[in-house]
Specification:
Elements lengths: L1 H22 L5 H14 L8 E4 L2 E4 L1 H10 L4 E6 L11 E8 L7 E7 L12 H18 L19 H5 L12 H14 L3 H12 L9 H17 L1 H9 L4 H7 L1
Antiparallel strand pairs: 1-2, 3-4, 4-5
Helix pairs in contact: 1-2, 3-4, 6-8, 8-9
Length: 257
């Protein structure tokens, strides 16, 4: 019992440190308090990309929910499309997911839908998979009593509407790892569009993922970073630049100041 408490307290400490490094002055005492509670109750890890701070609130990720289910020995998840609410020609999909916490569990049901109007431009063209993920997320949140919304359940933010250049490009699915062309292309596009320093972005990404080298980061961690970088760049580029400048060498920081 003491070992469990000690492990969770260590996680709280690590998460607080990562949060302060990642969001700097943008994170408040209220955010840190909520993060501590999420860490103690669900063992969510910032380094693993389990939760993200978006639009002044915490959101759990699909990765975080799946890891939570695994820790609690989830018996199974059944997912099926809902034909009466789906239209493949219009790229509109709806799914039903049922989570079974144990063999005797009657199941926790969740529904998810997606169409071009309520998904981010980053995953445009992958509406079916987004709908399935949203259904699973809702069912998992019900099963394990997670009160905060998941990242995948929210649509694109008003400030994150695709630019004209992005609209002309074909849909890109959010798959692949750090070395994969899809994620790398998305990251390069963000850097070019917002005129960011690639070296500083890489340093931030390494810190965000909690690894020594970006190549050590898992696919989900890098995808979470790319998503957050895009949202932050659209929302408040100046704040993002301030965060990136914190990774400058000491001598260069003095020059910037």
């Amino acid at each position: 019992m003491k070992s469990g408490i000690s492990t969770r307290q260590k996680l709280v400490t690590v998460n607080r440190r990562l949060a302060k490094n990642r969001w700097g002055c943008l994170i408040s005492k209220k955010h840190l308090f909520t993060l501590a509670e999420l860490s103690k109750q669900f063992e969510f890890s910032l380094a693993m990309g389990d939760v993200l701070l978006i639009e002044n609130g915490w959101y759990v990720t699909h990765t975080g929910l799946v890891r939570l289910a695994q820790r609690n020995r989830c018996a199974g998840i059944h997912v099926r499309p809902v034909p009466e609410f789906s239209d493949s020609a219009a790229l509109r999909w709806a799914f039903e997911a049922i989570v079974y916490k144990s063999r005797a569990c009657r199941g926790f049901v969740g529904y998810g839908d997606a169409d071009p109007s309520n998904v981010s431009s980053v995953v445009r063209g992958a509406e079916m998979r987004v709908a399935e993920t949203r259904a699973v997320n809702r069912a998992l949140r019900k099963a394990y009593g997670v009160g905060i919304c998941s990242v995948e359940e929210i649509g694109s933010f008003p400030a994150s509407q695709p630019s004209e250049e992005t609209k002309k490009r074909p849909p890109q699915h959010a798959n692949g790892n750090y070395g994969g062309p899809k994620v790398r292309d998305q990251l390069c596009q963000i850097i070019r569009k917002h005129q960011l320093d690639a070296t500083l972005v890489k340093s931030y990404a390494t810190d965000f993922c909690g690894v020594k080298s970006l190549r050590e980061a898992k696919r989900e961690q890098v995808e979470n970073f790319v998503r957050e970088l895009a949202e932050w760049a659209e929302k408040d580029r100046n704040a993002l630049l301030c965060q990136l400048n914190s990774y400058l060498p000491s001598k260069e920081k003095e020059g910037v100041a």
